[in-house]
């Protein structure tokens, strides 16, 4: 999707991909295959580039510092990106900035996790500070008997990979209060090196099994004044951390209406995919403009409401074969990622722009249900 945004701008992307059949490698000609934790591979790849940016946050911080020290324009830089890579660093910095967060603590043992839970109240959430995504590396701990699980998993499949732990051994467990939220929200901003920044409308997000399933933009029932405050908060975080490119601030709205920050992402983000079809300038184009230090594009929505629904791998193994049914609704925009269909895996998304929330949401859900094999037209 970043390649699609780069072509009209005349920007040439080079890609370091994990494998030749990844979605990005299928889209970017001449993609190089290599290990993003291998210093030699990353340094060699970066030679001659005008700037380096990312579609995930897992490149080791020290490796990025090595690139920056060698004069490579790393955008966002390691001093900013560490707050999306490391949840403990994120919580510490956001707390210092006065940004609302859940109660949290770094815990070194099941006993410390239990002690935190006794103070904050059961249940609590435990997370690996590095390496987790899409619900991986996250545990809901309901009782003292469950407190061993996060620590046992640090060396297991839900924790960081062995290569990531060797490259950066500072992986710890972060304990957080369990927030009984009313809904989740997301604010995306784009920021240039000199500080120019723009914010997208606030989105409401729906998660399923730890994976983003649906976004609605703008978030229903959010007053213009409250939306503006959330955008200002996200812009303030981007400025304080020195972000270059897209910053996604994921929020949990408590039942009393107050919000706390759940996660940060410094890259084009799933909750901003609606912008490809639903905004004047997509998050991917604005990310590239920011990384290139070009003027940023307008973030205005093109319709009163836009709903994006992810397509998760399910019973339907022939996504393309389902398109005639899906595209019979002319409002539906389909984005398939070229991935092999596996249960629960994000293999694409659909977007519908409209004037009425209910009918727009129904159309998006109907299209994704068809592509997931939940319905058959």
Could you please describe the fold and organization of this structure?
Strands 7, 8, 9, 10, 11, 12, 13, 14 and 15 form a nine-stranded antiparallel β-sheet that branches. A four-stranded antiparallel β-sheet has the order 3-6-4-5, sandwiched between helices. The protein has helices spanning 2-9, 23-27, 39-46, 61-69, 78-85, 87-97, 110-120, 149-153, 162-167, 224-241, 275-278, 283-291, 323-326, 357-372, and strands spanning 16-17, 32-33, 104-107, 124-128, 138-141, 173-177, 181-191, 197-199, 203-208, 211-217, 245-254, 259-265, 305-312, 332-336, 346-354. It is of the alpha+beta class. Strand 1, helix 2 (23-27) and strand 2 (32-33) form a beta-alpha-beta unit. Residues 163-168 have low confidence and may be disordered. The chain folds into three domains: 2-83, Rossmann fold; 103-177, ATP-grasp fold, A domain (Dna Ligase, domain 1, 2-Layer Sandwich); 181-372, 2-Layer Sandwich (D-amino Acid Aminotransferase, Chain A, domain 1), CATH 3.30.470.
* CATH architecture descriptor of the largest domain: 2-Layer Sandwich
Quickly name the level 1 CATH class of the largest domain: Alpha Beta
Give the count of helical stretches. Answer: 14
- Looking at CATH, the homologous superfamily of the largest domain is ATP-grasp fold, B domain
Distance between the termini: 28 Å
CATH topology of the largest domain: D-amino Acid Aminotransferase, Chain A, domain 1
Low-confidence stretches: 163-168
Shape: globular
């Amino acid at each position: 999707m970043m390649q699609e945004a780069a072509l009209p701008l005349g920007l040439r992307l080079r890609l370091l991909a994990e494998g030749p059949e990844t979605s990005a490698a299928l889209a970017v000609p001449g993609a190089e295959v290599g290990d993003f934790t291998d210093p030699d591979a990353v340094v060699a790849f970066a030679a001659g580039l005008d700037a380096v940016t990312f579609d995930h946050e897992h490149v080791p911080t020290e490796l990025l510092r090595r690139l920056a020290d060698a004069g490579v324009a790393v955008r966002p830089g390691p001093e900013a990106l560490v707050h999306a890579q490391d949840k403990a660093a994120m919580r510490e910095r956001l707390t210092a900035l006065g940004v609302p967060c859940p109660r949290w603590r770094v815990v070194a043992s099941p006993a410390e996790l239990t002690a935190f839970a006794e103070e904050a109240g059961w249940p609590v959430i435990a997370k690996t500070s590095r390496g987790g995504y899409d619900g991986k590396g996250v545990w809901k701990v309901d009782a003292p008997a469950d407190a061993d699980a996060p620590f046992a998993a640090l060396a297991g499949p839900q924790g960081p990979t062995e290569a990531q732990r060797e490259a950066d051994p500072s992986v710890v467990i972060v304990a957080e209060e369990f927030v009984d939220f009313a809904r989740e929200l997301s604010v995306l901003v784009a920021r240039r090196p000199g500080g120019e920044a723009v914010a997208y409308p606030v989105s409401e997000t729906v998660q399923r099994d730890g994976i983003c399933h649906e976004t609605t933009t703008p978030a229903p029932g959010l007053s213009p004044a409250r939306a503006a405050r959330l955008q200002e908060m996200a812009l303030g975080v981007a400025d304080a951390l020195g972000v270059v490119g897209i910053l996604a601030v994921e929020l949990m709205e408590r039942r009393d209406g107050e919000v706390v920050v759940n996660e940060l992402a410094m890259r084009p983000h799933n909750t901003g995919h609606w912008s490809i079809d639903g905004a004047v300038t997509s998050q991917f184009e604005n990310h590239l403009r920011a990384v290139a230090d070009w003027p940023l594009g307008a973030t205005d929505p093109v319709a009163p409401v836009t709903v994006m629904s992810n397509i998760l791998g399910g019973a339907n193994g022939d996504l393309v074969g389902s398109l005639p049914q899906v595209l019979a609704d002319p409002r539906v925009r389909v984005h398939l990622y070229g991935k092999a269909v596996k249960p629960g895996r994000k293999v694409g998304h659909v977007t519908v722009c409209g004037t009425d929330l209910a009918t727009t949401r129904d159309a998006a859900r109907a299209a994704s249900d068809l592509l997931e094999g939940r319905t058959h037209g």
